[in-house]
């Protein structure tokens, strides 16, 4: 199928805003006590039967066995409820019985989550899977780039704000240990696929007159103030840790002076620069949003699938690169190999842009590095304020409330992300002085 035919239906910028507002009226009901339900009450055999009947286009499909269980532990996912559903069902039209496993991603069912986000983040992800990913795949297919990048979608349910995917575990894809991070082999696989997504998105946006530029929220942006309190709380916890670290007292004082300007400096990272290369970023590309397939004999990584597209944002590829590199890599890669990783990512990005006949300016490798450096503040932010959350060891209080609030309990959790994590302590003590020498703690930058 040609990309021209696939791209006829535009993702209009105004549609996203309209759908976000309209969907606010369709939020699922809270449980009586406001506590997150690990397995949603509506996720039952009858519901899955209807979804599978639609997917297989067989109204006689019948589920014979049904089992639902939580997927993830604390500290692995703060925003969604992930439920694994195993079913055995009969397909009368083909006279066969199948056994399948699916992952159902649904909204948190607690008051704090709904007050902060409503259904915005899930509607955004549903639009990505329904409207955007098929077009990115079609563009790449036109140049014979057919490797699997995204999870297969079984159903998109806007009424309940949920997505149903094939269970990647059944195909031997597994989540990386977030405390160990990504090794060289995994990150190379990831960057090749990320570069293809970025390149295809730049071309899609070019051919459809800015159709992706309406994705402006991300984790932090001028269009999304939902996470500002996370930043302020982690800033205070980090500053306290730095002040108590030998040799970093002067830097602690600079952090204190930076506090009033900090959020503005962070937001500038998300401001697209017109003469730079801009792409659709994943926005939350850390280790638990990557599924890895390993060789059963050698345990060598063979493939990766990228999941969770709820914080996509249009802007510099630095958003994804700095965030991933400074939250999710093994220690040596984090400290010493980022330039090499950028170079490898760049070559794939450049090649795909050329194959897709991108009409804009493709930066040279040197120009690309300079563009990334203009967003280098995100290296500081990701290393010092995001990584400690992602790699927290004491997960007893790791939940959405402790992230978004700054109560005594919440601040105790945030401080523990530093005081109880030797790995993050080493990284911050090593890199924070380098960030200071680069001028990333200056008020005017």
From TrEMBL:
This is CHK domain-containing protein. SMART domains: CHK (SM00587). It comes from Glossina pallidipes (Tsetse fly). Coiled coil: none annotated. SUPFAM superfamilies: Protein kinase-like (PK-like). Residues 163-355 form the CHK kinase-like domain.
